[in-house]
């Protein structure tokens, strides 16, 4: 008789590979014969994980249609099955997988839309933190404004794209499939959850770099410099309004505070 | 300490500090029903949630569960611990589970007699294991570890199965009885699973219940199953949780509570989710059967 370890090795191998023979040790299957019962397990795994991906990536599904999505998701489940029982986060690499899928090359923005959708899931389940108000800046000595740093929402993502990723996502989610999205205007996406609902925003010029720098702990002065380098039309006052209005900032730290912990 | 059915539980059990669910009908709680439940505040005995859906750090799932927790008794049901694995339990997952259980302090925690992870892959299904001395030792070791970690008794649920193993040397009921006696864990009797497995393996569901250690049962599950046929045109039922509870399963449930007494009873509906009123009507059906039983018991006492 196989040990439990051997039995589970064989069972798991047969689950992963639909073309493989049934595992040893099953009582009901004739050797080389009936597989319908074992196939229930193969099917449960694939169908439930494809469904999990479908609920995380509804816009991708609408962009390519249910049939193509289901085939792509099945291939992903084969290549990158979950490594954790917490399926909330399953699909982190689905965008990269779609980028590399030859049959999806006609839909070059698919990976970016998938990364945006996964960023929504990440924001949805991230730790809760009360957003700070822009009033927090009023108390900072003007001479020290350049040196302040920000704490941002832990679930915040910045996605850069060559495509109008936010407009594409919006069109899908509002089922405005006929709406013409202007494909010549690239958009970045800022995904952040200030309270119960996840916000998906197109940042003002330089905003993606500004937020990326702030998240690394850069001072306001340094982050503004990075934003300026990336886009000369950047406007600091507008960017500050954006980061506070979206609820992206949870705390403002002035250098005085850092000097006296 | 009393078990919901009414009889005293043994002394070893009382060492574990615990509350119990009310002996009423409860509902599996899904995100799609949060608003309906909060707005309508339905008369449901208790709710059950899947532990893994609350393993994120924050967000609306916790917000709603915190809110409902104030008004309803709660059961937390794990679907990913892989207690039937030969390999060790995942310590990271056990830690996550402890966090959820500590946060919500549910009246009950339960998991499955099944495995779901192997070699670093999570299969998202409840996979079967042979029932023999080796697997009993493995399962008992894992249950001891879970109960130690959580500082409470857990319930173990009988699975729906589609295949059986040559290396099984005992029946599922005998296996569960042995595990309950050795670890002090309670059992969760899924009546739909009994019906599905009995049909799939061509034995009598009533015979299964006859040998089932009902005195260890603290909770019942009812759910819907799908019907299929195998290559030899034999019935093949699938535990799909995607529809109403079947008539035969209601009958088996009535038979079970007549023997075991009133027990907390959950309606599970996980796929093809209906609007809340449809699920609620199933909960009410179970509640009616529990009330019938209590009336019958009173008449018996009066007579």
Q: What count of helical segments of chain A does DSSP give?
A: 11
Q: Radius of gyration of chain B in whole Å, from Cα? A: 19 Å
Distance N to C terminus of chain A: 65 Å
Largest sheet, spatial ordering of strands of chain B? 1-2-3-4-7-8-9-12
Number of strands of chain A: 5
Share of residues in helices of chain B? 40-55%
Read across the widest sheet of chain A, the strand sequence of neighbours is 2-3-4
β-sheet strand percentage of chain A: 5-15%
Strand % of chain B is 15-25%
SSE string of chain A = HHHHHHEEHEEHHHEH
Describe the largest sheet of chain B: 8 strands, parallel, barrel
**What global shape of chain B is seen?**
globular
Largest interface: A-B, 47 and 54 residues
User: Count the helices of chain B. How many?
Assistant: 10
What would you call the structural class of chain B?
alpha/beta
Total number of beta strands of chain B:
12
Low-confidence stretches of chain A: none
Compose a concise summary of this entry.
The complex is a heterodimer of chains A (261) and B (303). Chain A has eleven helices and five strands, in the order H-H-H-H-H-H-E-E-H-E-E-H-H-H-E-H.
Give the SSE layout.
The complex is a heterodimer of chains A (261) and B (303).
Chain A: H1 4-16, H2 36-56, H3 58-64, H4 66-79, H5 94-99, H6 110-125, E1 149-152, E2 157-159, H7 165-173, E3 189-192, E4 199-201, H8 207-215, H9 220-230, H10 236-245, E5 249-253, H11 255-259
Antiparallel strand pairs in A: 1-5, 2-3, 3-4
Chain B: H1 11-14, E1 25-28, H2 34-40, E2 47-50, H3 60-69, E3 74-77, H4 91-104, E4 108-112, E5 115-118, E6 121-127, H5 133-150, E7 155-157, H6 172-183, E8 186-190, H7 191-200, H8 205-211, E9 217-223, E10 226-229, E11 235-238, H9 247-260, E12 265-268, H10 276-302
Parallel strand pairs in B: 1-2, 1-12, 2-3, 3-4, 4-7, 7-8, 8-9, 9-12
Antiparallel strand pairs in B: 5-6, 10-11
